[in-house]
Design brief:
By secondary structure, the protein is mainly beta. The protein is built from 1 helix and 10 strands, in the order E-E-E-E-E-E-E-H-E-E-E. Strands 1, 2, 3, 4, 5, 6, 7, 8, 9 and 10 form a 10-stranded antiparallel sheet that branches. It comes from Runella defluvii.
């Protein structure tokens, strides 16, 4: 297997909304407010209105489930469901949840994005498996997406 860089997402987010403890763990939601994406064969904007639904498990691992819409510069709409895990030492995770700048080498942030589109130009997104690595910034998430060949 080899990884091929597909594109980078720069997903802008609002403040965390804390629901509290549920039967699954500590639930929180992060509104997606916009952003951009760009790679060798694709470029566009992240539409506002999506959410990253997170559960912080009792072992401190964050289960991520982000769902939002991408719009390419040529008008194609692409849905993304990006599920993954973020974990690290408790004090690092606390700094992240407080919106502080944290070096990405201090935590693990990996995901599996799945795409859907009706545009033939971008059907390649639904014909392969992708993996991603993420960096949480105070007001955005940077996601490097790779196609598994």
């Amino acid at each position: 297997m080899e990884l091929e860089f597909a594109f980078e997402l720069r997903v802008e987010v609002a403040d965390i909304q804390f629901m509290g403890d549920t039967h699954r763990g500590n639930r929180r939601m992060i509104p997606i407010t916009g952003g951009t994406f760009e790679g060798p064969a694709i470029k566009g904007k992240v539409q506002a209105g999506g959410y990253d639904w997170q559960v912080i498990r009792t072992d401190g691992v964050a289960e991520l489930d982000a769902r939002y819409v991408l719009q390419t510069d040529d008008g194609a709409l692409i849905t993304i469901v990006n599920q993954g895990l973020r974990r690290g030492p408790a004090e690092v995770m606390k700094r992240l949840s407080e919106g502080k700048e944290v070096d990405p080498s201090e935590y693990y942030f990996r995901s599996i994005p799945v795409f859907e589109t009706a545009d033939p130009k971008y059907v390649w997104l639904s014909q392969s498996v992708f993996v991603a690595t993420g960096i949480r910034k105070p007001d955005k998430v940077l996601i490097q997406v790779y196609k598994i060949n």
